[in-house]
Amino acid sequence: MRPLILPVLLSLILSACNQPSPDQTASAPAATPAPAQTATPTEAAAEPAAAKAPEGDCGDQSALASEERVANTPKWSLASEQDNFGFDVFRGDSENGEFTKLNKDPILGAGTTDETQKYSWRDDSIDPCKDYWYYVESISTTGVREKMTPTFKAPAKHSPRSQPAGK
Fold first, then answer.
1. Can you give the residue ranges of every domain in the chain?
2. β-pair type (145-147, 132-140)
3. Could you tell me which residues come within 8 angstroms of residue 54 by beta carbon, excluding any fewer than 6 positions away?
4. What is the reported pTM?
5. What is the pLDDT of residues 61-90, one digit of tens each?
């Protein structure tokens, strides 16, 4: 698996993207998210870090349609690949905590290629008011698995809405 990692320009733009909230829509252009539970090569663009998350609703978003949910989108690119079957994306509630694999099926890699490939995974099963940690694991065509990214933090997208005093 080392030949996959070493020549790789691992430009990890592991950004945590989301759908803009209604209060963000007027000031920021809406991004077109990848379909939920789907990973396809995408453009990896760095996003400026927000000083403070906007206020919003917290908790389970399962009652919302997938395309309306706030999401984190880890992104990574490889300058080349050798015998790469695919990837799994893992998420945890803390940097050192227990991690859970998010994708049911592997995100398919490009096999062997010298062309740059870009990948992403849209995680719309988050609580928008929580921080999460992610990492990506590669899978070779022989089944060897290797953690290929550092663990990185996706900060909360929203702060809980302020409650009036006395309530």
1. 2-159
2. antiparallel
3. 21, 23, 24, 157, 158, 159
4. 0.69
5. 999 999 999 999 999 999 999 999 999 999
